[in-house]
Amino acid sequence: MAVLFGTDGVRGVANKDLTPETALRLGRAGGAVLSKSKAGSRVIIGKDTRKSCDMLEAALAAGLCSAGVDVLLAGVLPTPGVACLIKELGAAGGVVISASHNSFEDNGIKFFGPGGYKLTDGLELEIEQLALGNLDTIPAPTGGGVGRIADLPDAVDRYVGFLKNTVQVDFSGLKVVLDCANGAASGVAPGALAELGAEVIAINNRPDGVNINLNCGSTCLDMVQAAVREHRADLGLAHDGDADRVLAVDAAGRIVDGDQIMVICARYLKELGRLAGNTIVVTVMSNLGLHLAMRESGIKVLETKVGDRYVLEEMLRSGARFGGEQSGHILFLDHATTGDGLLTALQLLAAVKEKNKPLGELAAQMEKLPQLLVNVKVNNKQEVMASNELAEAIAAAERCLAGSGRILVRPSGTEPLVRVMGEGRDAGELRAVVDELVDLVRRLGV
Question: What's the CA gap between 168 and 241, in Å, rounded?
């Protein structure tokens, strides 16, 4: 069982759970694993705006160099920007120092391999075992074999150039409020949209090391909603700390989530003849309304468990080129190897401009059905999930919804919780059905 790596890299409170010593060990172990690839021995490090990033960057770089790997420092850059540069420069891999949407006290380390793809579970486990073991088992070159560190001063320009090349639409006439979450998007996103012709009103784009995600960004949309109404903008966009996701709001300030963005973009791509296999990949948490909208459009939907890495795995397996999560992690494999909030924003703006319709009208293509999620604390989630009584109750609940809704009961991957989620057109009926299941899970979990 993994000790360091979670569902998206290694995370913890910086300098407490995630220390410089741990970062150094991860750097050395990661360098040993990544340098085995045919792409050579250059690794790119990028980071978000947290105060602790500099400390962890220094330790990571030292660890990588001690394994004979050369390090290119990209500075503050969105996570997908690092993935983009790995592919463009033919590097052996990359490391991003970020805790995404978490508050500034936390930080994280996640690795990418050749081509800019997130590492497989097997490679993460290999790095973890080396990092937790005896580092003396890793070759330690001396003299000319030691790695060197160099800055990559044009990292932002390279990434912005890539982004701009993914659209052939002039955004002139669009007024956009852009919430950068005081994170990695701050020095990239406003300029990219402006260069494509949009009138940009940037907010939360002045990071100070401790204000990342603070009451802003994709996890707190109040500020972008208010700013859109205040400035009478056409729409608003909100990123998270490392800018690998995006959510939107329409001109009235109504939230447009990842499911609605996927419906808009999937239909747009199909009209252009660029939706591979007429298929998209989503997780089990996507709203039933997405499935109904896709069915009406003749688009096939494949489901995975929660996590953008699982969406990517299914896309690679099935040949699909578009998919994502309700949270705004969306993948356009024709352009990028990982979820990219800025790329998604550009594709969404292109659809709005080309369709010549307001975002609110395009979002209304999907009827968002009432969705109710309750987290139930239990002593043993595995025992609860193995209960025949629970399985029978779930089947009865689904029969009660009579095809107009669905039930999903799943254990949390990181906490002692069982999550009970229901969807249906009748909110009252849905509440009654979910409440019964919650009571059962609570009783089974004692």
Answer: 27
Chain centre to alpha carbon of residue 142: 39
pLDDT at residue 134, as a whole number: 92
> Two tokens at 91?
């590097």
Global confidence as pTM: 0.91
Q: What does the radius of gyration of the chain's CA atoms come to, in whole angstroms? A: 22
Just list the catalytic residues.
100
Query: CA–CA separation, 16 vs 21, rounded Å?
Result: 10
Per-residue pLDDT tens digits for 416-442: 899 999 998 888 889 999 999 999 999
**Alpha-carbon gap, residue 351 to 331, rounded angstroms:** 16
**DSSP collapsed to 3 states, the chain:** CCCCEECCEEEEEECCCECHHHHHHHHHHHHHHHCCCCCCCEEEEEECCCCCHHHHHHHHHHHHHHCCCEEEEEEECCHHHHHHHHHHHCCCEEEEECCCCCCCCEEEEEEECHHHCECCHHHHHHHHHHHHCCHHHCCCCCHHHCCCEEECCCHHHHHHHHHHCCCCCCCCCCEEEEECCCCCCCCCHHHHHHHCCCEEEEECCCCCCCCCCCCCHHHCCHHHHHHHHHHCCCEEEEECCCCCCEEEECCCCCEECHHHHHHHHHHHHHHCCCCHHHEEEEECCCCHHHHHHHHHCCCEEEEECCCHHHHHHHHHHHCCCEEECCCCCEEECCCCCCCCHHHHHHHHHHHHHHHCCCHHHHHCCCCCCCEEEEEEECCCHHHHHCCHHHHHHHHHHHHHHCCCEEEEEEECCCCCEEEEEEEECCHHHHHHHHHHHHHHHHHHCC
Size of the chain in residues:
446
User: CB neighbours of 424 closer than 8 A, spacing ≥ 6?
Assistant: 288, 369, 370, 401, 404, 405, 406, 430, 433
Contact assessment for residue 365 and residue 293, using Cβ atoms and an 8 Å cutoff: yes
Q: Are 440 and 392 in contact (CB under 8 A)?
A: no
For 365-391, write each residue's pLDDT tens digit.
Answer: 999 998 899 999 999 999 999 999 999
Q: Please list, residue by residue across 358-370, b when 16 or more beta carbons sit within 10 angstroms of its beta carbon and e when fewer do.
A: ebbebbbbbebbb
Separation of alpha carbons 57 and 68, rounded Å: 17
